[in-house]
Amino acid sequence: MIRTRWTVPARLSRSDPRSAETLDGHPTSVLLPALVLAALAALLSALGAVLPVVDGAVRGYASAPLLIVLAVVPPVLAIAFVLRGRPAAGAGVLAGVAALAPGQAVLDLQFLADPSSVSRPELYRPEVFALPGPGVGFWLLLAGHVVAVAAGVAGVRALGPRPESGVADRGLLPIGLVAAGVAAVGVMMAPFAGDDAFLPVGSAFERPALVLAGSLLLAFALPVAAGLAISSGSDGLSTGGLLGLGLAAATVALPELGSGIAVDGIGVSAGPIVVLVGAAGLAVVAFLPSEGREGLPVRLGGDATGEASADPGADDTAANYATGDFAAANYAAGKYEAAHYAAANYAADKAGVARAGDEAGEARLPGSPGLRRATGVLGLVTMLAAIAGTFTDQVVVTGELGGPQSPWRWSLLVAGLLVGVLGAAMFVPVLAPVLRPVLSVAWAGVPLAATAVLTTAITATELGAGLSPGQGVVWTSVATVAAAATACCSVVAGMVERDDSEEAAEVPGPNLITPLVAGGILAIGGFGTPSIVSPDYVEPALWSNFGTPSWGLLLALLTVLGACFLAPRSRPARATGLLAGATCLAVLRLLALPLTGDQITGAHAGVGWWLALGCVVALAIATVLAPRGTIHTRKTPSGSIR
């Protein structure tokens, strides 16, 4: 059938009395509330940068001018876009900044928990071991982040109806995700180097829980927000969103870089430089040309190659021509001239619709095959980083000698190889659609193992005695971020697959519910309680001895539960893939004992191991039952005129 993708102007022309020209003619009235909130957020952040964040705070260097500029630039850029008649770009800037605000707020909360371990010399450089109370600057910074989120939400909502995500600019999606992934890697790295006792140095995994949580929020928000911006279907929203995201990333990195340059006793590290490289990449992607940026639909329907297909639904498009609805015909055909010609000649010659479809078919975008290939590349990068993290030193002693090895490194190797094999399958057209849902879940095995591996470096660093993190820490962190980027790209590819699919919607039958519920309940116990028990070792878990590996367990558990929740709502083939991926995660939990038990004296299976075994059995049964779909529903054509 001939399918139409509506852009913002097309939707306004049909359902909103304001036309696109009216929207651009009075931009300040549309985005005024969002711009006011953005200005307020900038004011609060600037004041928070000037006033002390803790009682008696002394800065490591004169950072106030830099922090004020970083706070003011995003709203100024948004206002500039609005004044130039591009309100969507202005709203995108606000949304991009808002995407990283929650992570920045969590980082700032460390001032409230323990100011001595913050490592933020641009705001506070402790000179004695003390726990001062929060100052007025802290509350202003926190309020600024909250208002920034409100400004981003208000800006996007002010734009009104928007096209489906994943429709336009698919060619830029892999590039944008790579740039965002680079920035995410930098966020997890050490902000600066040095041996100052009052400024703890280390990667996010070696720092307090709030700092780790905030860094993880930033690392996950970067690729997710970049993907949403690029696939928004709006030129302005995509451009502004990427620029805002890049500015927000620079706001995190530049103060750290300034600290490494200006503060005595510490030096520049690779972390903030990597973040700035990623931020620059986002800015470049924002201005890259794309066929989907013409503000018109890029194809009328059919498969991922852009070929138009015949369907009775074409009568709806024809009706638009016959009634003279030139605004709708304009976006259905792809060019105003083609729509005008079809409207004048439809009654005499229906070939006008076919001509319009042919013209639109010429503007092709890489669809799900291209996204699957990008997913495959990221999966292979994850595998290579995991292999490097397995065979390089996590801990080194004075003189660059290798330190103790993590007993969990073999779990990281297995998880990385699994993601790599699934990633390689994305290049095989026959296997890619079948195994992509598996990869959308199995990626969580890498952070599950990586957080356990990094515990060795964290513990050794805390002990001191000449022990320091090795190159393995960097590679393991890269593998974790690359796995997250793989998941994001795989999920977007799945959205595009569903949009391009012409199959009738069929979901698994009710027989799937029982093993799913059992698998979910057993997963809570299997991932939440220790799977390895030893007289001299207490394994971190969710319900006891919470530590760095517990974050990986929590992520894996949430991923398994998410797969169990989505499977009954998915087509049988997709449900089978999701449940197969969840089964792989449970199997990785089981393999922890045989892979690490010989390195832990007296290790044997704990309650969590047996619960994980039951989870594997339940999820395997659900995987077998998933292809037996018994419920049939008619799929509503996405993006059609009806």
UniProtKB/TrEMBL annotation:
Keywords of this entry: Membrane, Transmembrane, Transmembrane helix
Sequence intervals crossing the membrane: 30-54, 60-83, 90-113, 136-159, 171-190, 210-230, 242-263, 269-289, 374-392, 412-431, 438-460, 472-496, 508-528, 548-568, 575-595, 607-626
Protein name: Uncharacterized protein
Species per Swiss-Prot/TrEMBL record: Amycolatopsis sacchari
